[in-house]
Amino acid sequence: MDRLDDLEAQSIFIFREAFARLKRIALLWSLGKDSNVMIWVARKAFFGRVPFPVLHVDTGKKFPEMYAFRDRYAVEWNLDLEVELCPPLDTVDPTLPPAARSAARKTEGLKLALAKYGFDGLIAGIRRDEEPTRAKERVFSPRGQEGGWDIGDQPPEFWDQFNAAPPPGAHLRIHPILNWTELEIWTYTRREGIPIIPLYLARDGKRYRSLGDVDITFPTASRAGTIDKIIEELETTKTAERAGRAMDYESEDSFERLRRGGYL
Amino acid sequence: MNILATDNAIAVPTALTRPLVRIVIVGHVDHGKSTLIGRLLHETGSIPDGKLDTIKAVSVRRGVPFEWSFLIDALQTERDQGITLDTSQIRFQTASRDVVLIDAPGHAEFLRNMITGAAQADAALLMIDAVEGVREQTRRHAYLLHLLGIHQIAVIVNKMDRFGFDESRFHEIEGEIADHLSSFGLSATAIVPISARDGDGVAKCTPALAWHTGPTVIEVLDRFSPARSLRDLVLRIPVQGVYKFDDKRIIAGRVETGAVAVDDEVVIMPRGTTARVQSIETWPVPNESRLVRTAHAGRSIGLTLDRAIFVERGDLISAVDAPSKAVRWLRARVFWLHEEPLAVGAAVNVRVGMAERRGTITAIENAVDPGLLSPTEADVIAQNHVGEIEIELAQPIAADLYAVNPRTGRMVLDLAGRISGGGLILSVDGEAGRKAHAQSASGEHPETSFAAQPAREDSPADQLANEAFRLNNLLFGLPPAERVAAFRRAFGGRIVFTTSFGLEDQAIFHLIAEHAADVEVVTLDTGRLFRETYDLWADTERRYGRRIRAIYPDHQKLEAVIGRHGINGFYDSREARLACCNARKVEPLNRALAGAAGWIVGLRAHQSGSRRDATLVSVDVERRLLKFSPLADWTREAVQSFAADNKVPINPLHSRGFPSIGCAPCTRAIAGGEPERAGRWWWEQDQKKECGLHITGATEPFPSVD
Lengths: 264, 706
Hints:
A: Rossmann fold; B: alpha/beta; Elongation Factor Tu (Ef-tu), domain 3; 16 helices; 26 strands; elongated; disordered N terminus
C-alpha cells in the first residue's frame, strides 16, 4: 500500500477522534506547509469542510506572503478563521534567550485564545522528525491549566485509543501529522496539488525550509525552485529542517523550555 | 547482505515505496538502548550536519564524556541523568528499508512509556548487557512484547567489549533468554553480540567478533517485515461518527480488517441490524468513472447505507456472514499501568474499537509480576503487572476473540478517561466460557465457582442506557412524524415536552396534539419573552384546544439575581448572563422535569456545531431521564415544510430573520450566512451559545448544549 495513503488514513482517523471525543476544538493554522497539509486532510476527513474554527495565532511579524496566503485561502477553503493577536514582548519570561523569548509571544497568544474561546482541544501540525522533543510527543497530548507540558508525566497511549478527558481549564494538543516527515509532507503536497507560500521555493540561491517570524527565521542555501526539486533536495540533504529557526539554537535546552511552557 | 558505509546510505533514493518497518528497542535500564540508536544513526549517515559536533562540544563544556545516547535523549534531564524518560522515534534508512526506530525507557517506573512506544512497533530489539545478563526489565519487556502482539524479536547482547568479546559468555546469555522467551511461546529471530559504543557487530562484524556467524544489527533490521496487512481477515469497521453535513448521512470510520465494497451487505453490531452499502464517500468528489467502489484495511472512509437504520459511534460494521460477537461478558489477558491495583469489584471503562462500556471486574487470576523469575500469584493486578480478568459489561459491546481478529479482539481499560491498561480478549461467551474455564481450571482451583455467581443487577443508569439503546433502534427506522407517538407507546412513565414556541417546538406540539395526548406540555415563562411569542402561545392554545402549563421562576432567586446584577445586567458579563438564564430557565426547568421519566425537546443536529451529534434518544444522567429529540435528523427546511403542510401556527419573527428565538433582550435577527443560533446572546464572543438547559452529565454518549 502506498505510504502517503497510509499516513493520510491515520491522520483522518485522528481528526475524527478529536472531533468525536472533545467538545470545542480548533485547528492551529501557522500558514506553513505542514498546517496546510493538515487542513487538506481535515477536509478529506469531513468530506469537504473543516467543521471547527481555524485559529491563526498572529505575532504580527509574519512575512507579507504569509498574510496574503491566509486571506486568500481562508475564503477559498471556506474556513471559519479566527485571528488571535499575540501580546507584546514585555509580557514574556525575560530569562529566555532573545529569539526564544520572541517566539514565546505565540505561547502567550495561545493562552489568550484558550481563555477567550474555552477550547478543550487544539490541533497542531508538529512532526516528530522536526525536533527531538517533538519526537517524544503523544498524539493526544495533555496540557495543564497554564498550558504547560508535563513531559515527565505523559499518559500511556496505544492501539489508537486516546486520553481525551482534560480536567476543567486544561486542554489537549492533538497532533494528526506527528508521524509524517518533511519529505512526506512535500511529496503529499505535490500529489494533492496543495497550494504553498512561494517563500519555500529558492530565489537567488536561497529558500525557506521552515517559516516563522520575519526577524528570527532565515533562508538556507538551495537551488530548489520547484516542489520536484525540493523533494530531490530532501532526499540527499543533511541540513536540519529547522536550521533557519534561531530560537532552536540559542542554548542547549532553549527549545525544550519553550515547549514545556506551552509552545507548539 | 550489504554493509552500509556512511556515504552509500545518503545516496540511496527515498522513493516512498520502500517498505517502512517500525522497530522498538527495549530491555533493562542501562543496557544500551539509546546508545545503540545513536550508533545506528551514525553508521547509516543519518545524523544532520553539525549535530554530532554540537553534542560533543556540549559534552566537553559540561565536563561529561560524550555518549551516543545524547542524540536521542532530547530532554535536559535525560542527558543530565543518562537515562531515557519517555519514548521517542527517529527515522533512518538501511539498504532496503525505511526504518522508524522507537526508543523505549528501561526504568520500571516508565513502563507506560515503553508500552506507548512498543505498541506502535512491527518488530523489536531486546537489549541485554553482557555483564548484567537477563534482568527484571528484560523479562518484563519480553512478556509485554508478547502481550502487545509483537512476534518478530531479535536479541542484542551489548557491551561484549567488557568481556573481551568472549564467545562462551554470549552463549550463556543466549541460553538464558531463549528459555525465557520460550516460556510464553516466543523465539528470537536472531541473537547478535555487539558493542554499541564502539560499533562492533552494529554495521559490520569486526575481527573481535570473527566467531559470530549470524547477522549484524543492520542485517537484522533488514530482515524484519512490516506488519502483516489485515485485509485478508473479515470486514470490521468501528464507527467513529455519523456526519450529516448536508442531505447525506455519512458513516465515518476506518476499515480495520478486511475490505468493503459498494453493494456489500453488512451487519451493524451489537445491534444486529443489516443494510447494504450504497456508496463509499470521498473528497474531493471524483467524476463518475473514478468513484471509489472498494476500500481495504487501513483506509479511513465514509459509507452510506441503502436503508435508514440507526447507527452511532461505537457500533462495529461487520461482514454479514461473519459478524463480531455482541458480548456482555469477556475474559482477557491484560497488563495494568495504574498506581491503584486492579481488584475484583473494580468499575472500569472498557474500550473496544470506538465503543466504550462501563464494566465490573468479576474475577482475577494468574496476576503476576512478569519481571520476576518465579513469580507468585496475587489476587489483585498491581501496577506494571499482568493477569487474566473477567469483566461484566453494563451494555453489550461488539468484540472478537484476539485469536480471530487482532484489532477488534483487543481492548483498553480506562479509569475516568485515563488509559490504565490493555489486553487481549480470550473468551466472550459468558456462561459457556465460564463453565469451560471452571472445568479446565478445576484441577488447580477446586474452589472456582464462577458459574454459581448470581447475575449482576443493572444499576438505574445502566437500565436507562439500555432503554435508550432499545428506543433508538426502534424509532430510527420510523418516519419522523410517527416517532412521537411511537415513543409514547413504547415507553412507560411520565413524559414532559418543554416548548419555547420555536419552529421545531410547534411541529412537535402538533404531533403531540394529534397523536400522543398523554404527554405533558409545559413552557418556561421567563418574563422577558417577545410579545409575538406570547401571542403565539395564546394562538396555539386556541388552535389545538389545549392549555399549556406555564412554569415561572422562583421569585426569591430572581429577585436576588436582579438585586446583584441589575435588570439588564446580563449584558455586562457572562457570569451575570448565566445567573439570569439559571434563575429564569434552568431552575424552573428542573422543577418542570421533577419525577419525569422522559423529556421531549426540539433539538436538531443542524442547529450549530456543538449540536452536531444530537441523537434521537439519549440519557440525561443528572436528571435521570431519557431525552428524546424527535427532529434530531431533520433539516430546517423539512420542519418548515411540515409546518406549512399542516398549517401549524409559527412565530412571525422567524420570517424577520430570527431562526432561533429566546428572551427578547437576548435574541437578535441574524444576517444571511450566519449560523442559526448566532443571534442568541450575540454580544458574547464565546461560540458556545448555551443557557444550561441541555448540558447533561459527562457520561451521556452525545453531549448536547442549548
